[in-house]
Write a structure and sequence with these properties.
Structural class: mainly alpha
Number of strands: 0
Protein name: Putative tick transposon
Largest sheet: none
Number of domains: 2
Helix content: 40-55%
Order of helices and strands: HHHHHH
Radius of gyration: 18 Å
Shape: elongated
Distance between the termini: 20 Å
Strand content: under 5%
Number of helices: 6
């Protein structure tokens, strides 16, 4: 899962070429973005983010035979009116290599989800 704009753009370019190939639309006037919207194709970056969040949901809800306590800790905050029970303690990283790896990146995305979505049983279908 790339994190630099340059690498993200390279993958998105591959997706755009694939969409043009699939629909046999190679003219400059044929927009790959409009083809993707018509066929409800998400950008690869969004698909990867959803996949990461779904995996974290499965792990956090003990649906895997992996000890989640080795990787996930609940956030230690006081209970206020802004308290959200689904929050996880973030990983702190000094280097980009670790900062943009799976757990720090996904936990950050997870903590920014609305509570209704994070605790919903419909999370896997969204």
């Amino acid at each position: 899962d790339p994190f630099t704009k340059k690498d993200i753009n390279k993958l998105e370019r591959v997706q755009r070429r694939a969409v043009r190939f699939i629909y046999d639309k190679f003219k400059r006037s044929n927009s790959p973005s409009s083809l993707m919207k018509i066929n409800q194709n998400d950008l690869l970056q969004e698909k990867r983010k959803k996949a990461r969040l779904k995996f974290l949901y499965i792990l956090a809800n003990d649906r895997l035979s992996i000890n989640r306590h080795s990787y996930l800790q609940p956030a230690t905050t006081k209970q206020t009116r802004h308290y959200q029970p689904h929050l996880l303690a973030p990983y702190f990283a000094r280097t980009n290599l670790f900062k943009f790896s799976f757990f720090p990146r996904t936990i950050s995305d997870w903590n920014s989800l609305p509570t209704q979505l994070a605790v919903s049983s419909q999370f896997m279908t969204s």
